[in-house]
Amino acid sequence: MSAWNPLRLLGLAGMSLLRDETSVISILEYLPTELFPPLFILAFCGRHSEALKAMVQAWPFVRLPLGGLMQTPHRGTLQAVLDGIDVLVAQQDRPRRCKLRVLDLRHTGQDFWRKWCGDGAHGYSSTLMAPVAEDRSRTEQSLTPVVVFIELHLKERTMDRFLTYLIRWVEQRKASVHLCCKKLKILSMSMENIMKVLSRVQLDCIQEVQVNCTWHLSTLAVFAPLLGQMGNVQRLLLSHIHVSALDEQEQQHVVQITSQFLRLHHLRDLCMESPSFLEGCLDEMLRCLTTPLDNLAITHCLLSDSDLSHLSQCPNISQLKGLDLSGITLTYSSPELLPVLLEKVAATLQELYLEQCGIMDSHLETILQPLSRCSQLMFFSLRGNLISMAVMEKLLRHTSGLPSLSQELYPVPQESYSSQRILQPGRLAQCRAELFEILRVLGRPRIIWISSSPCLHCGDNTFSHPQPIVYR
Protein backbone atom coordinates (compact mmCIF):
# COMPACT_ATOMS: atom_id res chain seq x y z
CA MET A 1 0.00 0.00 0.00
CA SER A 2 2.95 2.33 0.55
CA ALA A 3 3.39 2.66 -3.22
CA TRP A 4 -0.03 4.29 -3.49
CA ASN A 5 1.02 7.67 -2.15
CA PRO A 6 -0.95 10.82 -2.97
CA LEU A 7 1.47 11.94 -5.72
CA ARG A 8 1.22 8.60 -7.50
CA LEU A 9 -2.56 8.63 -7.26
CA LEU A 10 -2.59 12.20 -8.56
CA GLY A 11 -0.45 11.20 -11.53
CA LEU A 12 -2.68 8.26 -12.38
CA ALA A 13 -5.78 10.45 -12.11
CA GLY A 14 -4.19 13.07 -14.38
CA MET A 15 -3.20 10.55 -17.03
CA SER A 16 -6.68 9.09 -16.96
CA LEU A 17 -8.17 12.54 -17.33
CA LEU A 18 -5.92 13.43 -20.26
CA ARG A 19 -7.18 10.48 -22.26
CA ASP A 20 -10.16 12.71 -22.97
CA GLU A 21 -8.79 16.21 -23.54
CA THR A 22 -12.31 17.61 -23.82
CA SER A 23 -12.89 16.60 -20.20
CA VAL A 24 -9.76 18.41 -19.11
CA ILE A 25 -10.81 21.61 -20.84
CA SER A 26 -14.26 21.48 -19.23
CA ILE A 27 -12.96 21.23 -15.65
CA LEU A 28 -10.18 23.87 -15.76
CA GLU A 29 -12.46 26.55 -14.36
CA TYR A 30 -12.92 24.44 -11.22
CA LEU A 31 -9.48 22.84 -10.97
CA PRO A 32 -7.67 23.78 -7.73
CA THR A 33 -4.63 26.00 -8.32
CA GLU A 34 -2.19 23.50 -6.82
CA LEU A 35 -3.23 20.86 -9.37
CA PHE A 36 -2.39 22.99 -12.42
CA PRO A 37 1.40 22.38 -12.40
CA PRO A 38 1.29 18.56 -12.09
CA LEU A 39 -1.46 18.30 -14.69
CA PHE A 40 0.45 20.65 -17.01
CA ILE A 41 3.57 18.46 -16.74
CA LEU A 42 1.57 15.39 -17.68
CA ALA A 43 0.01 17.18 -20.63
CA PHE A 44 3.37 18.52 -21.74
CA CYS A 45 5.22 15.20 -21.51
CA GLY A 46 2.32 13.42 -23.20
CA ARG A 47 2.13 16.11 -25.91
CA HIS A 48 -1.58 16.72 -25.38
CA SER A 49 -1.74 19.87 -27.49
CA GLU A 50 -5.38 20.85 -26.95
CA ALA A 51 -5.10 20.43 -23.18
CA LEU A 52 -1.93 22.54 -23.13
CA LYS A 53 -3.56 25.26 -25.19
CA ALA A 54 -6.53 25.40 -22.81
CA MET A 55 -4.40 25.32 -19.65
CA VAL A 56 -2.35 28.30 -20.84
CA GLN A 57 -5.58 30.31 -21.14
CA ALA A 58 -6.48 29.47 -17.55
CA TRP A 59 -2.95 29.52 -16.05
CA PRO A 60 -3.37 30.87 -12.48
CA PHE A 61 0.23 32.12 -12.02
CA VAL A 62 2.04 35.19 -13.31
CA ARG A 63 4.85 33.13 -14.85
CA LEU A 64 4.87 29.91 -16.84
CA PRO A 65 8.46 28.57 -16.66
CA LEU A 66 8.18 26.33 -19.70
CA GLY A 67 11.93 26.23 -20.33
CA GLY A 68 12.40 24.15 -17.19
CA LEU A 69 10.53 21.33 -18.94
CA MET A 70 12.14 21.68 -22.36
CA GLN A 71 15.36 19.68 -22.41
CA THR A 72 15.01 19.53 -26.18
CA PRO A 73 12.52 21.98 -27.73
CA HIS A 74 9.56 20.22 -29.33
CA ARG A 75 7.79 22.37 -31.85
CA GLY A 76 4.39 20.76 -31.36
CA THR A 77 4.18 21.40 -27.62
CA LEU A 78 5.68 24.87 -27.98
CA GLN A 79 3.17 25.69 -30.70
CA ALA A 80 0.31 24.54 -28.45
CA VAL A 81 1.48 26.90 -25.70
CA LEU A 82 1.91 29.78 -28.15
CA ASP A 83 -1.54 29.07 -29.60
CA GLY A 84 -2.96 29.42 -26.10
CA ILE A 85 -1.22 32.77 -25.74
CA ASP A 86 -2.63 33.82 -29.12
CA VAL A 87 -6.15 33.22 -27.82
CA LEU A 88 -5.38 35.21 -24.67
CA VAL A 89 -3.97 38.30 -26.36
CA ALA A 90 -6.80 38.32 -28.90
CA GLN A 91 -9.48 38.48 -26.20
CA GLN A 92 -10.92 41.82 -25.17
CA ASP A 93 -11.36 40.50 -21.63
CA ARG A 94 -9.04 37.77 -20.50
CA PRO A 95 -10.48 34.93 -18.38
CA ARG A 96 -10.80 36.10 -14.79
CA ARG A 97 -8.71 33.23 -13.49
CA CYS A 98 -5.78 33.62 -15.87
CA LYS A 99 -2.85 35.57 -14.41
CA LEU A 100 -0.27 34.72 -17.07
CA ARG A 101 2.03 37.63 -17.92
CA VAL A 102 5.39 35.91 -18.52
CA LEU A 103 6.30 32.87 -20.61
CA ASP A 104 9.81 31.84 -19.58
CA LEU A 105 11.64 29.67 -22.14
CA ARG A 106 14.98 29.80 -20.32
CA HIS A 107 16.39 26.67 -18.70
CA THR A 108 15.21 27.81 -15.31
CA GLY A 109 12.10 27.28 -13.22
CA GLN A 110 12.91 23.78 -11.99
CA ASP A 111 12.20 24.99 -8.44
CA PHE A 112 8.70 25.98 -9.51
CA TRP A 113 7.87 22.52 -10.82
CA ARG A 114 9.62 20.75 -7.96
CA LYS A 115 7.81 22.78 -5.31
CA TRP A 116 4.36 22.50 -6.82
CA CYS A 117 4.67 18.86 -7.75
CA GLY A 118 6.34 17.77 -4.48
CA ASP A 119 5.76 17.92 -0.74
CA GLY A 120 6.47 21.66 -0.49
CA ALA A 121 3.78 22.75 -2.92
CA HIS A 122 1.35 24.24 -0.43
CA GLY A 123 3.99 26.23 1.42
CA TYR A 124 5.63 27.88 -1.55
CA SER A 125 5.04 31.61 -1.82
CA SER A 126 7.68 32.85 -4.24
CA THR A 127 6.95 35.83 -6.44
CA LEU A 128 7.53 33.41 -9.28
CA MET A 129 3.93 32.30 -8.78
CA ALA A 130 2.39 35.38 -7.24
CA PRO A 131 -0.91 36.44 -8.82
CA VAL A 132 -1.33 39.85 -10.37
CA ALA A 133 -2.89 42.31 -7.93
CA GLU A 134 -6.64 41.87 -8.00
CA ASP A 135 -7.40 45.59 -8.10
CA ARG A 136 -6.19 45.91 -11.68
CA SER A 137 -9.06 46.31 -14.07
CA ARG A 138 -9.87 43.53 -16.53
CA THR A 139 -9.29 45.97 -19.41
CA GLU A 140 -5.84 46.93 -18.09
CA GLN A 141 -4.87 43.26 -17.78
CA SER A 142 -6.01 42.49 -21.31
CA LEU A 143 -3.89 45.32 -22.72
CA THR A 144 -0.71 44.20 -20.91
CA PRO A 145 1.70 42.52 -23.36
CA VAL A 146 2.81 39.00 -22.63
CA VAL A 147 6.57 38.90 -22.02
CA VAL A 148 8.52 35.95 -23.42
CA PHE A 149 11.96 35.35 -21.89
CA ILE A 150 14.54 33.33 -23.82
CA GLU A 151 18.24 32.55 -23.63
CA LEU A 152 20.01 33.96 -26.68
CA HIS A 153 23.17 31.98 -27.45
CA LEU A 154 23.84 32.78 -31.08
CA LYS A 155 26.36 30.07 -31.89
CA GLU A 156 25.50 28.85 -35.37
CA ARG A 157 26.03 30.50 -38.71
CA THR A 158 22.29 30.20 -39.30
CA MET A 159 19.36 30.29 -36.89
CA ASP A 160 18.02 26.95 -35.67
CA ARG A 161 14.42 25.99 -36.38
CA PHE A 162 13.26 26.72 -32.83
CA LEU A 163 14.61 30.28 -32.86
CA THR A 164 13.41 30.89 -36.42
CA TYR A 165 9.89 29.80 -35.51
CA LEU A 166 9.83 31.90 -32.32
CA ILE A 167 11.18 35.03 -34.02
CA ARG A 168 8.57 34.75 -36.77
CA TRP A 169 5.81 34.27 -34.20
CA VAL A 170 6.92 37.32 -32.19
CA GLU A 171 7.28 39.42 -35.34
CA GLN A 172 3.62 38.84 -36.21
CA ARG A 173 2.50 39.85 -32.70
CA LYS A 174 4.90 42.64 -31.76
CA ALA A 175 2.13 44.81 -30.30
CA SER A 176 0.95 42.14 -27.85
CA VAL A 177 4.10 40.08 -27.20
CA HIS A 178 7.49 41.34 -26.05
CA LEU A 179 10.56 39.14 -26.51
CA CYS A 180 13.18 39.61 -23.79
CA CYS A 181 16.45 38.10 -22.70
CA LYS A 182 18.73 38.90 -19.77
CA LYS A 183 21.92 37.43 -21.24
CA LEU A 184 23.02 37.70 -24.86
CA LYS A 185 25.91 35.50 -25.97
CA ILE A 186 27.24 35.68 -29.53
CA LEU A 187 29.64 32.92 -30.54
CA SER A 188 29.14 32.67 -34.28
CA MET A 189 26.40 34.08 -36.47
CA SER A 190 26.23 36.31 -39.51
CA MET A 191 25.65 39.96 -38.74
CA GLU A 192 22.53 39.86 -40.92
CA ASN A 193 20.95 37.21 -38.70
CA ILE A 194 22.13 38.90 -35.52
CA MET A 195 20.42 42.09 -36.62
CA LYS A 196 17.28 40.15 -37.53
CA VAL A 197 17.07 38.44 -34.14
CA LEU A 198 17.84 41.55 -32.10
CA SER A 199 15.33 43.63 -34.03
CA ARG A 200 12.61 41.52 -32.33
CA VAL A 201 14.13 41.67 -28.83
CA GLN A 202 13.43 44.33 -26.20
CA LEU A 203 17.05 45.47 -26.03
CA ASP A 204 16.64 47.37 -22.77
CA CYS A 205 15.96 44.04 -21.02
CA ILE A 206 19.46 42.73 -21.71
CA GLN A 207 21.76 42.88 -18.68
CA GLU A 208 24.77 40.89 -19.91
CA VAL A 209 26.42 40.81 -23.34
CA GLN A 210 29.18 38.43 -24.41
CA VAL A 211 30.68 38.75 -27.87
CA ASN A 212 33.07 35.82 -27.96
CA CYS A 213 33.93 35.45 -31.61
CA THR A 214 36.55 36.75 -34.00
CA TRP A 215 35.25 40.01 -35.39
CA HIS A 216 37.00 42.71 -37.31
CA LEU A 217 36.73 46.19 -35.84
CA SER A 218 34.38 47.24 -38.65
CA THR A 219 31.97 44.42 -37.68
CA LEU A 220 31.92 45.59 -34.07
CA ALA A 221 31.22 49.12 -35.33
CA VAL A 222 28.10 47.79 -37.10
CA PHE A 223 26.99 46.08 -33.89
CA ALA A 224 27.75 49.09 -31.67
CA PRO A 225 24.48 51.03 -32.20
CA LEU A 226 22.55 47.96 -31.01
CA LEU A 227 24.79 47.81 -27.94
CA GLY A 228 23.99 51.45 -27.26
CA GLN A 229 20.27 50.56 -27.08
CA MET A 230 20.96 48.02 -24.33
CA GLY A 231 20.82 50.69 -21.66
CA ASN A 232 20.50 48.25 -18.76
CA VAL A 233 23.61 46.22 -19.57
CA GLN A 234 25.62 45.58 -16.41
CA ARG A 235 28.27 43.22 -17.78
CA LEU A 236 29.99 43.46 -21.17
CA LEU A 237 32.56 41.05 -22.58
CA LEU A 238 34.22 41.68 -25.96
CA SER A 239 36.68 39.06 -27.13
CA HIS A 240 39.12 38.87 -30.04
CA ILE A 241 38.26 42.06 -31.90
CA HIS A 242 40.95 42.48 -34.53
CA VAL A 243 42.28 45.33 -36.60
CA SER A 244 45.06 45.12 -39.16
CA ALA A 245 46.19 48.76 -39.01
CA LEU A 246 44.66 51.67 -37.15
CA ASP A 247 44.24 54.01 -40.10
CA GLU A 248 41.82 56.93 -40.30
CA GLN A 249 38.84 54.73 -41.13
CA GLU A 250 39.58 52.37 -38.26
CA GLN A 251 39.95 55.35 -35.92
CA GLN A 252 36.43 56.33 -36.92
CA HIS A 253 35.26 52.82 -36.07
CA VAL A 254 36.82 53.19 -32.61
CA VAL A 255 34.87 56.41 -32.09
CA GLN A 256 31.64 54.73 -33.25
CA ILE A 257 32.18 51.92 -30.76
CA THR A 258 33.37 53.85 -27.71
CA SER A 259 30.70 56.54 -28.07
CA GLN A 260 28.04 53.92 -27.34
CA PHE A 261 29.49 53.49 -23.85
CA LEU A 262 27.97 56.88 -23.06
CA ARG A 263 24.56 55.19 -23.15
CA LEU A 264 25.45 52.31 -20.83
CA HIS A 265 24.47 53.90 -17.54
CA HIS A 266 24.39 50.64 -15.57
CA LEU A 267 27.65 49.08 -16.75
CA ARG A 268 29.54 47.56 -13.81
CA ASP A 269 31.76 44.84 -15.32
CA LEU A 270 33.83 45.37 -18.47
CA CYS A 271 35.98 42.59 -19.91
CA MET A 272 37.97 42.97 -23.13
CA GLU A 273 40.02 39.97 -24.28
CA SER A 274 42.63 40.53 -27.01
CA PRO A 275 41.29 43.94 -28.10
CA SER A 276 44.08 44.74 -30.56
CA PHE A 277 42.48 48.08 -31.42
CA LEU A 278 42.88 49.55 -27.93
CA GLU A 279 46.56 50.48 -28.09
CA GLY A 280 46.77 54.25 -28.03
CA CYS A 281 42.95 54.54 -27.87
CA LEU A 282 42.11 53.45 -24.34
CA ASP A 283 41.47 57.03 -23.21
CA GLU A 284 38.64 57.36 -25.76
CA MET A 285 36.82 54.43 -24.18
CA LEU A 286 37.54 55.51 -20.60
CA ARG A 287 36.16 59.00 -21.24
CA CYS A 288 32.85 57.46 -22.32
CA LEU A 289 32.30 55.47 -19.13
CA THR A 290 29.42 57.05 -17.22
CA THR A 291 29.42 55.02 -14.00
CA PRO A 292 32.06 53.53 -11.66
CA LEU A 293 33.09 50.00 -12.62
CA ASP A 294 33.20 47.06 -10.21
CA ASN A 295 35.39 44.88 -12.41
CA LEU A 296 37.72 45.68 -15.31
CA ALA A 297 39.64 43.17 -17.43
CA ILE A 298 41.81 44.21 -20.36
CA THR A 299 43.90 41.22 -21.36
CA HIS A 300 46.32 39.91 -23.99
CA CYS A 301 46.90 43.07 -25.95
CA LEU A 302 49.36 45.94 -26.20
CA LEU A 303 48.87 49.10 -24.18
CA SER A 304 51.06 52.18 -24.41
CA ASP A 305 52.36 54.20 -21.48
CA SER A 306 49.74 56.83 -22.24
CA ASP A 307 47.03 54.14 -22.05
CA LEU A 308 48.20 53.01 -18.61
CA SER A 309 48.48 56.61 -17.49
CA HIS A 310 44.91 57.38 -18.59
CA LEU A 311 43.74 54.20 -16.87
CA SER A 312 45.24 55.23 -13.54
CA GLN A 313 43.65 58.69 -13.87
CA CYS A 314 40.18 57.48 -14.81
CA PRO A 315 37.70 58.42 -12.04
CA ASN A 316 35.43 55.48 -12.84
CA ILE A 317 37.96 52.83 -11.80
CA SER A 318 38.53 54.18 -8.29
CA GLN A 319 36.05 51.68 -6.81
CA LEU A 320 37.25 48.57 -8.63
CA LYS A 321 36.80 45.23 -6.90
CA GLY A 322 38.45 43.22 -9.65
CA LEU A 323 41.33 44.15 -12.00
CA ASP A 324 42.79 41.82 -14.65
CA LEU A 325 45.69 42.97 -16.83
CA SER A 326 46.95 39.48 -17.72
CA GLY A 327 48.86 39.19 -20.95
CA ILE A 328 49.67 42.91 -21.14
CA THR A 329 53.44 43.25 -21.36
CA LEU A 330 54.57 45.66 -18.67
CA THR A 331 58.29 45.02 -19.21
CA TYR A 332 58.84 48.17 -21.22
CA SER A 333 56.31 50.38 -19.42
CA SER A 334 57.41 53.23 -17.21
CA PRO A 335 57.98 51.67 -13.78
CA GLU A 336 55.83 54.21 -11.94
CA LEU A 337 52.60 53.52 -13.88
CA LEU A 338 51.52 50.25 -12.28
CA PRO A 339 52.15 51.45 -8.68
CA VAL A 340 50.04 54.56 -9.34
CA LEU A 341 47.24 52.38 -10.70
CA LEU A 342 47.30 50.08 -7.67
CA GLU A 343 47.27 53.06 -5.31
CA LYS A 344 44.14 54.26 -7.08
CA VAL A 345 42.23 51.05 -6.38
CA ALA A 346 43.89 49.92 -3.11
CA ALA A 347 40.91 50.74 -0.90
CA THR A 348 38.40 48.50 -2.72
CA LEU A 349 40.37 45.92 -4.74
CA GLN A 350 39.45 42.29 -3.99
CA GLU A 351 40.89 40.41 -6.98
CA LEU A 352 44.08 41.17 -8.94
CA TYR A 353 45.38 39.24 -11.95
CA LEU A 354 48.79 40.11 -13.37
CA GLU A 355 49.54 36.88 -15.22
CA GLN A 356 52.05 36.77 -18.09
CA CYS A 357 52.82 40.47 -17.90
CA GLY A 358 56.59 40.15 -18.29
CA ILE A 359 56.97 41.28 -14.68
CA MET A 360 60.47 40.79 -13.26
CA ASP A 361 62.06 41.63 -9.93
CA SER A 362 62.47 45.35 -10.60
CA HIS A 363 58.80 45.75 -11.59
CA LEU A 364 57.48 43.72 -8.69
CA GLU A 365 59.48 45.67 -6.13
CA THR A 366 57.83 48.91 -7.29
CA ILE A 367 54.34 47.62 -6.48
CA LEU A 368 55.04 46.01 -3.09
CA GLN A 369 54.05 49.10 -1.08
CA PRO A 370 50.75 49.80 -2.86
CA LEU A 371 50.02 46.06 -2.86
CA SER A 372 50.43 45.95 0.91
CA ARG A 373 47.72 48.62 1.18
CA CYS A 374 45.11 46.57 -0.70
CA SER A 375 43.35 45.72 2.54
CA GLN A 376 40.34 44.06 0.84
CA LEU A 377 42.42 41.83 -1.46
CA MET A 378 41.23 38.20 -1.46
CA PHE A 379 42.72 36.78 -4.68
CA PHE A 380 46.10 37.57 -6.28
CA SER A 381 47.65 35.81 -9.28
CA LEU A 382 51.13 36.55 -10.58
CA ARG A 383 51.65 33.39 -12.62
CA GLY A 384 53.72 33.40 -15.77
CA ASN A 385 56.22 36.04 -14.64
CA LEU A 386 59.93 35.69 -13.83
CA ILE A 387 60.54 36.31 -10.12
CA SER A 388 63.54 35.42 -7.96
CA MET A 389 63.41 33.84 -4.51
CA ALA A 390 64.69 37.04 -2.90
CA VAL A 391 61.86 39.17 -4.29
CA MET A 392 59.34 36.38 -3.71
CA GLU A 393 60.25 36.59 -0.02
CA LYS A 394 59.71 40.36 -0.05
CA LEU A 395 56.33 39.80 -1.71
CA LEU A 396 55.23 37.30 0.94
CA ARG A 397 56.32 39.66 3.73
CA HIS A 398 54.46 42.65 2.25
CA THR A 399 51.25 40.67 1.75
CA SER A 400 51.31 38.81 5.08
CA GLY A 401 49.32 41.60 6.74
CA LEU A 402 46.42 41.47 4.29
CA PRO A 403 43.58 40.03 6.40
CA SER A 404 41.35 38.78 3.57
CA LEU A 405 43.99 37.34 1.23
CA SER A 406 43.13 33.64 0.88
CA GLN A 407 44.06 32.63 -2.67
CA GLU A 408 47.58 33.32 -3.96
CA LEU A 409 48.98 31.98 -7.24
CA TYR A 410 52.66 32.63 -7.89
CA PRO A 411 55.23 31.55 -10.48
CA VAL A 412 57.90 28.98 -9.71
CA PRO A 413 60.97 30.99 -8.58
CA GLN A 414 63.46 31.51 -11.38
CA GLU A 415 66.13 29.62 -9.40
CA SER A 416 64.13 26.46 -10.17
CA TYR A 417 65.13 26.64 -13.85
CA SER A 418 68.33 25.88 -15.68
CA SER A 419 69.98 28.49 -17.89
CA GLN A 420 68.01 26.97 -20.79
CA ARG A 421 64.71 27.61 -18.91
CA ILE A 422 64.19 23.92 -18.16
CA LEU A 423 62.53 23.21 -14.83
CA GLN A 424 64.82 21.29 -12.46
CA PRO A 425 62.85 19.15 -9.96
CA GLY A 426 65.65 19.20 -7.39
CA ARG A 427 65.94 22.97 -7.46
CA LEU A 428 62.16 23.29 -7.30
CA ALA A 429 62.03 21.11 -4.19
CA GLN A 430 64.65 23.33 -2.55
CA CYS A 431 62.71 26.50 -3.44
CA ARG A 432 59.52 25.01 -2.03
CA ALA A 433 61.30 24.23 1.22
CA GLU A 434 62.62 27.79 1.42
CA LEU A 435 59.16 29.22 0.73
CA PHE A 436 57.67 27.07 3.48
CA GLU A 437 60.32 28.34 5.89
CA ILE A 438 59.44 31.93 4.97
CA LEU A 439 55.78 31.24 5.72
CA ARG A 440 56.74 29.63 9.03
CA VAL A 441 58.79 32.64 10.09
CA LEU A 442 55.96 35.00 9.16
CA GLY A 443 53.79 32.94 11.49
CA ARG A 444 50.44 33.33 9.75
CA PRO A 445 48.50 30.23 8.56
CA ARG A 446 48.66 30.45 4.82
CA ILE A 447 48.40 28.49 1.58
CA ILE A 448 50.19 29.67 -1.55
CA TRP A 449 50.12 27.95 -4.93
CA ILE A 450 53.02 27.93 -7.36
CA SER A 451 53.04 26.79 -10.99
CA SER A 452 55.64 26.76 -13.72
CA SER A 453 55.51 28.88 -16.85
CA PRO A 454 52.99 28.05 -19.59
CA CYS A 455 53.66 24.83 -21.45
CA LEU A 456 54.90 25.49 -24.96
CA HIS A 457 53.09 22.40 -26.22
CA CYS A 458 49.74 23.23 -24.64
CA GLY A 459 49.26 26.84 -25.67
CA ASP A 460 50.38 30.18 -24.35
CA ASN A 461 47.78 30.37 -21.60
CA THR A 462 48.20 26.89 -20.14
CA PHE A 463 50.04 26.62 -16.83
CA SER A 464 51.28 23.49 -15.15
CA HIS A 465 49.02 22.22 -12.41
CA PRO A 466 49.68 24.49 -9.39
CA GLN A 467 51.09 22.87 -6.27
CA PRO A 468 50.23 24.18 -2.80
CA ILE A 469 52.65 25.13 -0.06
CA VAL A 470 50.71 24.95 3.20
CA TYR A 471 51.66 26.43 6.54
CA ARG A 472 49.09 26.00 9.30
From TrEMBL:
Keyword set includes Repeat: yes
Lineage: Eukaryota, Metazoa, Chordata, Craniata, Vertebrata
Transmembrane segments: none
Record-linked InterPro entries: LRR_dom_sf (IPR032675), LRRC14/PRAME (IPR050694), PRAME (IPR026271)
Protein family membership: Belongs to the PRAME family.
Name of the protein in its database record: Melanoma antigen preferentially expressed in tumors-like
Swiss-Prot/TrEMBL GO biological process terms: negative regulation of apoptotic process; negative regulation of cell differentiation; negative regulation of DNA-templated transcription; positive regulation of cell population proliferation
Keyword Repeat: yes
One GO cellular component term noted in the UniProt record for this chain: cytoplasm
Keywords assigned: Leucine-rich repeat, Repeat
UniProt organism field: Phocoena sinus
